[in-house]
Design brief:
Length: 818
């Protein structure tokens, strides 16, 4: 038995430690780090594997310093219940002393090596995803039971980090003293409350305090903090119940599960925190586009994968409620003091610091780092819901001159117009940039309506016409305006534009972004840039679409495609001279390949290209990668597919026959009780993907797909063929490509453009659309954006734990016998 040694060392009538039950094991691997004060303080690392916890004693505790080495002594396996166990082991028992869960989370093996094999060879590469520690390590056996625990240099490394600075439990939120004394936690704090606090029940809803725009200034009565470019979040906790909501009242925990344990970061029973969720890059700079892309993902596994690849941080900057007391009437200085007393920062939850120095100097320093700006807070101010002059935002502004190409009708009490529709002329085409209404008072609204009535036209000059809830009136681009904005979105639209006034001159034809702040203008940027060359080059001659059009398409679909591409090795099909020229597949990085594109060795001597951010799609398009192909499996389990692929390929037959075979396949899947995804290949056929329970090999999936294809061939021999050689396939038949279910094989991913004359796209479908007059290339670069907006994302390759081969095999055998 795996726990024999553990049980021999303990008398369970005397110790509260768990005895252990190995009858079952969760599907996900968990880990914990426990601070153990026995004869000496040490830490215990425990990794879930094969129904028990592999355990090592680490005398000096964990380190986040790059390439640091810690002695780790292998001990007996522990039961799974020990992951979150903490308490006191009585004197006279083995390991007597206090045990506290320092950290807890999940771990995964790095590379393709089996864990049992790695243990036998004495080297385990692993990633940890905890609340206090994260990143990549290697465990290397040196001699006997002694190992070295080595931290890899990655974005989670910290040179100045000591585990003893975080003396609280990641499981219960208790302090070390509370654990050692057996006290429950979190407990209401007994303190002398300031006179202006009131005893009130926890507020159900809190509208966050908002700031007015202002220019940089100096004043000792004000505090200055970094303006984080993220998502405003209100965290509310009542005992063990935690909610995190956006400014609009939407729950954020499903999209940001890494903050489930935020309650343990505040030493209190109940509280309300005001803060900001920020996704940072390797250099610590905020990346708002990655926050936005998280909202495009609905699948839990992909959300967690995104959380691992793009680190999110909760910056807390105000405390509104604490242990039965409403603090909003207190001044900012007092609230801040209380926040620092009860707050326990870690790698995911941090305190947004009040910066020392004068306002102007702080603003220059912050914007020189490429950050969004500064928030100034009056030290004597209460917390006021809604916009207030007590808080001021000092933003590093960007400005742009845009032409007005239309306007919307006003709503409610607004008069004149609703908003101006803006565009820029780029390479002879008018590109829609967004709309602006903020910053326009009633008088300019009326003036603009009178001005634009003189240049109304019947149809827009832009191609990507936006949706609007009120009527749009189109205009010729006679007038231009100056706007300030936060940044350009990956799709090239203005984010948070503010109307400045009528421009004194017409905008230049090429896109140039003017930056009003000199410090920011000269600041180096850590965000990747896609340098566009030759955007006018024709890639699709028949429809006169250019490389610029391809880049714009992938810029629009990047966040959606990322959810399906993340952690999958890619194969880029490049057409340097357009679809009528020579093409080649690129699976490996070549000299000059962008350093910010992730590359990883998937087997000895074989590096693969990955996509971990939406902007990478624009970079691939810049390389004239018309088609994006991806594998059926994801790292770290590249030998285990997410499901079965049926590639339906015509052999000199009409597309209607392809649709008929897809219907027959759907009937077979219905008999199995399985669900599947459907999409056009974008070329001639259809793809049907059946998600399976995780853990099967490609040999299993290929065998199952082959059995199902053979059943269909036997039922419809004149329609379906399984002959691999195209020349030997009978005409007017449909080939079901089963061998696609193999390691490293790729398929054109959902929403990938295809190298056809019409620039068609691999489009996810509803099954009911098989009954329409659908064609194989009906969806193109120009029509797909409107379809995505209308239908949403219809594609998913998420493994389905309810769809198992074990359940299907008896039914398939019965079908074969018929």
């Amino acid at each position: 038995m795996a726990l024999n040694e553990y049980r021999k060392k303990r008398t369970f009538a005397d110790t509260p430690e768990p005895k252990g039950d190995t009858s079952g094991s969760p599907s996900r691997w968990r880990f914990s780090l426990q601070r153990h004060q026995a004869r000496h303080v040490h830490y215990d690392l425990r990794l879930e594997h094969n129904g028990v916890l592999l355990s090592w004693a680490v005398p000096k505790g964990p380190s986040l310093q790059p390439l640091s080495k810690r002695l780790a002594v292998a001990t007996e396996d522990h039961p799974l219940e020990y992951l979150a166990w903490e308490g006191t082991i009585p004197e006279g028992n083995y390991g007597a002393g206090v045990m506290m869960v320092f950290d807890i989370g999940y771990w995964e093996s790095v590379g393709n090596k089996d864990v049992n094999e790695a243990l036998a060879q004495g080297e385990i590469k692993l990633k940890l995803w905890g609340q206090k520690v994260a990143g990549e390590w290697t465990l290397v056996r040196t001699k006997g039971s002694q190992w070295l625990w080595i931290k890899k240099d990655d974005s989670w490394s910290q040179t100045e980090w000591d585990p003893e600075d975080y003396p609280w439990s990641a499981a219960s939120g208790r302090t070390w003293n509370e654990v050692s004394e057996g006290r429950r936690a979190p407990e209401p704090k007994k303190r002398a409350w300031p006179q202006r606090t009131t005893s009130k029940p926890l507020p159900r809803k809190v509208q966050p305090m908002l700031a007015h725009i202002a220019e940089p200034f100096d004043d000792e009565d004000w505090a200055f903090e970094v303006k984080w470019d993220g998502l405003r979040a209100i965290a509310t906790c009542q005992v063990q119940s935690l909610t995190i909501e956006s400014r609009g009242g939407n729950s954020l925990l499903k999209k940001f599960p890494e903050f489930q344990e935020l309650r343990a970061r505040v030493a209190a029973e109940s509280f309300v925190l005001d803060g900001e969720i920020v996704v940072v890059d390797a250099g610590g700079s905020p990346q708002f586009s990655e926050v936005a892309s998280r909202f495009q993902i609905s699948d839990r596994n992909l959300i967690e994968a995104s959380a691992r690849s793009h680190r999110a941080v909760f910056y807390a900057f105000d405390l509104l409620y604490l242990d039965g007391r409403d603090l909003r009437s207190l001044d900012w200085t007092t609230r801040r003091q209380l926040l620092t007393e009860v707050f326990r920062p870690d790698g995911w939850v941090r305190l947004s610091e009040a910066l020392p120095g004068s306002g102007r100097d702080i603003f220059r320093a912050v914007t020189a780092q490429g950050l969004e700006g500064v928030v100034a807070k009056k030290r004597s101010s209460p917390y006021v819901e809604g916009r207030s002059r007590y808080w001021l935002k000092l933003k590093a502004k960007q400005s742009l001159t845009c032409s007005v190409v239309g306007f919307t009708a006003p709503k409610g009490t607004r008069s004149g117009i609703g908003s101006l529709l803006l565009a820029r002329e780029l390479d002879g085409r008018w590109e829609y940039m967004g709309r602006v209404g903020t910053g326009m008072s009633s008088q300019p609204l009326k003036e603009w309506k009178a001005r634009l009535q003189e240049c109304e036209v019947d149809s827009p000059i832009i191609e990507d016409v936006p949706k609007a809830t009120t009527k749009i009136t189109w205009c010729s681009p006679k007038f231009a305006v100056e706007v300030e904005f936060a940044e350009l979105t990956p799709g090239g639209k203005l984010r948070h534009p503010v109307y400045i006034g009528l421009a004194s001159k017409t905008p230049p034809k090429e896109r140039v972004v003017e930056k009003a702040t000199a410090a920011k203008e000269n600041a180096p940027s850590t965000a990747p840039k896609v340098k566009i060359s030759n955007p006018k080059k024709i890639l699709f001659p028949d429809v006169k679409l250019t490389k610029g059009d391809l880049i714009a398409y992938y810029g629009t679909f990047g966040p959606t495609m990322l959810t399906h591409l993340i952690d999958r090795p890619l194969s880029l099909r490049r057409y340097p001279d357009g679809v009528n020229g020579q093409d080649f597949f690129q699976k490996h990085p070549a000299p000059g390949f962008a350093e910010w594109i992730p590359v990883e060795e998937v087997k000895p001597g074989d590096e693969a290209i990955f996509c971990d951010q939406a902007m990478a799609l624009e970079y691939f398009a810049q390389l004239a990668s018309i088609e994006i192909h991806a594998t059926l499996s994801r790292r770290p389990h590249l030998d285990s597919p997410d499901g079965l692929l049926f590639d339906l390929d015509p052999q000199f037959c009409e597309f209607e026959k392809i649709k008929t075979v897809a219907r027959y396949l759907k009937m077979l899947l219905d008999d199995l009780g399985w669900q599947a995804q459907l999409k056009t290949t974008g070329s001639r056929g259809l793809h049907v993907f059946v998600p399976l329970k995780a853990g099967y090999s490609f040999e299993h999936s290929r065998l199952a797909a082959g059995v199902m294809a053979d059943i269909l061939r036997r039922r419809y021999p004149k329609l379906i063929t399984l002959v691999r050689t195209p020349a030997k396939r009978p005409k007017n038949s449909v080939y079901i490509d089963v061998p696609q279910n193999r390691t490293a094989a790729t398929m054109a991913c959902a929403y990938s453009v295809r190298a056809t004359s019409v620039a068609s796209v691999s489009a996810p479908l509803r099954w009911s659309e098989l009954d329409s007059d659908l064609g194989p290339r009906d969806f193109t670069i120009t029509t797909m954006p409107a379809r995505l907006e209308a239908e949403g994302d219809l594609w998913s390759m998420t493994p389905n734990p309810r769809q198992t081969l074990e359940d299907a095999l008896p039914k398939l055998e019965e079908m074969l016998r018929k």
